[in-house]
């Protein structure tokens, strides 16, 4: 049998045909650009000005390495840093550079979005997963808190497409062809993940009955951030501590859930055991794929949205290039409370309403189709960086700064 090789363009055409049959609307470049820029306050004098408040001018690769942390606002001299990195590339292997510091890839990626005519500029950027405020200004960043109000802490900055090697993997589009079809999927909800989110977000003691834990949420009130502030747990921790109970629930004599921790990290103690790793294909065999935020956005959310299975998640707290808070619950995904207290109810609804649930899975795929259009994505990425640099210049960013990370 001859194996047919598909391309990303084939996957995009397949999705376009399906989404047209569902009357799923397309979006314009202008509307997407507006969302990415929406965290930059119109105020020309934001409270944070990197020229005077901790701003560091990096004009060489060694300057970037001098920074003690990734999560810090810095100004990159585009020409200087690019020339310095090209010199490094002549003498060192890629693997050695990665071991040297992941900021090499952050920087190289961002420079790849800088179009013609911008080579002599400087750009204010915040690498890493930090969700703190950048003062309402147009500093480029990977993520921000989900909220259109840029005056709120962490809801600001300009989003660019960061960490593609981890969050936007080149083979994710193949999920469209690996989908086995709704009729072959099992009535099951699946999750695999690690214990991210912060060490203090997880229980130190395991209770036989998760409801006996006085720190745990039992009614889904408040938010994950509020829970941690009052001494409770983060959203992913709430899912993990319910794991044993959920895995014991049956429907028609079969387990409804397959939930497990594959790796314990961030100094979280192994209280619930581990489950074997599940491939994408294994997880796509379930009608429901659970997505839980950890440190920031869930890495697997993109391929899961492409899978044809229904993504079940809480209302997103962190937004990235995926534009999470623009997705509509009940249309593109099935929403649960942040502490998963209604997870069983929502999953049972899905299994009892098969056609509606299948449609949500397909509409999730429709949300993702714009990100499979490489030409459109390339244009949009350059537009975002160009507009951010323009706004930064208008506000005097990256003016007189301290050099060399000193």
From TrEMBL:
Name of the protein in question: Glycosyl transferase CAP10 domain-containing protein
Keywords of this entry: Transferase
PANTHER family: KDEL LYS-ASP-GLU-LEU CONTAINING - RELATED, PROTEIN O-GLUCOSYLTRANSFERASE 1
Domain Glycosyl transferase CAP10: 133-395
GO-annotated molecular function: transferase activity
Similarity annotation: Belongs to the glycosyltransferase 90 family.
Record InterPro entries: CAP10, O-Glucosyltr/Glycosyltrsf_90
């Amino acid at each position: 049998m001859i194996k047919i090789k598909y391309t990303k363009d084939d996957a995009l055409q397949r999705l376009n045909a399906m989404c047209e049959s569902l009357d799923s609307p397309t979006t314009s470049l202008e509307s997407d650009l507006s969302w990415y820029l929406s965290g930059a306050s119109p105020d020309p004098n934001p409270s944070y000005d990197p020229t005077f408040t901790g701003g560091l001018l990096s004009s060489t690769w060694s300057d970037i390495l001098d920074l003690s942390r990734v999560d810090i606002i810095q100004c990159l001299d585009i020409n200087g840093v690019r020339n310095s990195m090209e010199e490094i590339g002549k003498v060192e292997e890629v693997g050695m550079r990665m071991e040297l510091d992941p900021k090499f890839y952050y920087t190289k990626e961002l420079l790849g979005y800088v179009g013609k005519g911008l080579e002599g500029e400087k750009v204010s950027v915040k690498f890493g997963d930090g969700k703190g405020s950048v003062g309402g200004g147009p500093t480029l960043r990977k993520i921000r808190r989900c909220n259109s109000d840029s005056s709120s802490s962490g809801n600001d900055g300009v989003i660019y497409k960061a960490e593609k090697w981890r969050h936007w993997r080149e083979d994710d589009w193949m999920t469209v062809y690996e989908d086995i079809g709704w009729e072959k999927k099992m009535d099951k909800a699946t999750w695999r993940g690690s214990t991210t989110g912060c060490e203090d977000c997880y229980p130190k003691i395991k209770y036989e009955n998760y409801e006996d834990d006085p720190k745990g949420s039992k009614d889904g009130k408040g938010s994950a951030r509020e829970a941690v502030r009052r001494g409770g747990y983060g959203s992913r921790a709430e899912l993990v501590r319910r794991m044993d109970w959920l895995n014991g629930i049956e429907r028609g004599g079969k387990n409804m859930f397959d939930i497990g921790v594959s790796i314990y990290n961030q100094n979280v103690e192994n209280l619930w055991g581990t489950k074997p790793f599940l491939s994408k294909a294994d997880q796509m065999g379930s009608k429901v794929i659970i997505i839980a935020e950890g440190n920031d956005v869930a890495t697997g959310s993109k391929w899961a949205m492409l899978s044809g299975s229904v993504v079940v998640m809480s209302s997103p707290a962190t937004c990235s290039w995926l534009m999470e808070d623009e997705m509509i619950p009940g249309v593109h995904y099935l929403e649960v409370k942040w502490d998963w207290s209604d997870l069983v109810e929502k999953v049972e609804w899905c299994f009892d309403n098969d056609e509606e649930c299948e449609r949500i899975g397909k509409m999730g795929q429709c949300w993702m189709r714009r990100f499979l259009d490489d030409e459109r994505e390339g244009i949009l990425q350059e537009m975002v960086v160009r507009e951010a640099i323009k706004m930064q210049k208008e506000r005097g960013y990256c003016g007189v700064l301290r050099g060399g990370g000193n």
